[in-house]
Amino acid sequence: MIACHRLLDVGCGALMPWVALIGTGLGSVHEYALHVLRERLPDIPLLVDAGLGLLSHAAMVMEWGFDGVLLNTAVSRSGDPVMMAEEFALAVNTGRLAYEVEPVVPHHNAQASMPQVGQLFWYYPDYE
Q1: Banded pLDDT at 93 (limits 50, 70, 90)
Q2: Residue 47 DSSP symbol
Q3: DSSP, residue by residue, 80-115
Q4: What does the domain layout of the chain look like in residue ranges?
Q5: What is the CB neighbour count within 10 angstroms for residue 4?
Q6: How far is C-alpha 94 from the chain's CA centre?
Q7: Which residues of 52-73 are buried (b: 16+ CB within 10 A; e: fewer)?
Q8: Residues 17-22: what's their mean pLDDT?
Q9: Predicted confidence (pLDDT) per residue in 21-75, tens digit
Q10: Which CATH number fits domain 2-101: 3.20.20.70, 2.30.130.30, 3.40.190.290, 2.60.40.150?
Q11: Is the pLDDT of residue 16 over 70?
């Protein structure tokens, strides 16, 4: 985090954190750190670089609120680079849309989604 602030202090307009080592295709190996970075720098463009290997990796970081991804190995070493690039574009757009619709906040306990909390049965006399 200190390095990020120093980069911003010297005029960087965006940051590019790695999700894993370059070329590994592992996806996010430090998920918590990426969440903290996004949370603490809400107004700074964050473009994820290095370590993405699957379409789901790209969609996931976009769902977390990142602004874009940089790709090379996942596309250039795939069996069909053109198709893989097209599919990554779809995954990135889908992930961004998922972020923008504000999905439900995860809870560790059960949370009723209906207003009839505490009622064992619903009774509708109009349907007799």
Answers
A1: very high
A2: E
A3: SHHHHHHHHHHHHHHHHHHHHT-PPPP-SS----SS
A4: 2-101
A5: 16
A6: 10
A7: bbebebbbbbbbbbbebbebee
A8: 76
A9: 777 767 777 888 888 888 888 888 898 988 888 888 999 999 989 999 988 888 8
A10: 3.20.20.70
A11: yes
Place of tokens 């390095």: 3
Q: Is the Cα torsion angle 32, 100, 60, 46 positive or negative in sign?
A: negative
Q: Which two tokens stand for residue 42?
A: 């809400």
| pLDDT tens per residue, range 78-91 | 899 999 899 999 99
DSSP β-ladder status, 68-69 and 47-48 = parallel
| Rounded Cα distance, 63 and 71, in Å | 17
pLDDT digits (tens, 9 = 90+) for 109-122: 777 666 665 666 65
d(CA 30, CA 17): 11
